[in-house]
Amino acid sequence: MARLEDWIREACDTLDRCIRRGESRRVEDLLASHPEDRPAPELLLELIYTEFVARHEAGLNPDPEEYYARFPELVEDLRELFFVHRIVHAEDGVSEGISESETAPLDEAAASDRRRSRRTPRF
To answer: Cα separation of 93 and 97, whole Å?
Structure first.
């Protein structure tokens, strides 16, 4: 597992550098280069969030809906992640580009069900 975690960290660095240089790179490009290593959801979310933040900081205005379509198995986790992102950046006065409806938290019943079903904590 450490090898896969190391690869994800390197992939995050590569993705961030490429996007900041203006190259069109996506999470799927990096995953395709290692098809035998499908990362755990927590590591995949780290890679997705790296792409999202790099695109946001590069002025590309990434749309959360695009990520929901690209990673349907992670929609609820992505909603939570983008919700936290919006709150953190709202505190910094930088919440543009992400609407509240796109990052609305789960209703309490759905959130409670998800907490009970988790085997390992996620960020």
So the answer is: 12
Confidence of residue 64 (pLDDT cuts 50, 70, 90): very high
* 78 contacts: CB under 8 Å, gap ≥ 6: 45, 48, 64, 67, 68, 71
Round to whole Å and give the CA distance between 1 and 71.
Answer: 22
Hey, is 39 helix, strand or coil?
coil
Name the burial class of residue 55, with classes exposed (0-12), middle (13-18) and buried (19+) by CB atoms within 10 angstroms of its CB: buried
Query: Per mean pLDDT, which range of 14-28, 80-94, 106-120 is the poorest?
Result: 106-120
Q: What angle do CA 24, 28, 33 make, to 5 degrees?
A: 100
CA-to-CA separations, 1 to 28, 39, 47, 77, 121, in angstroms, rounded: 20, 9, 16, 22, 17
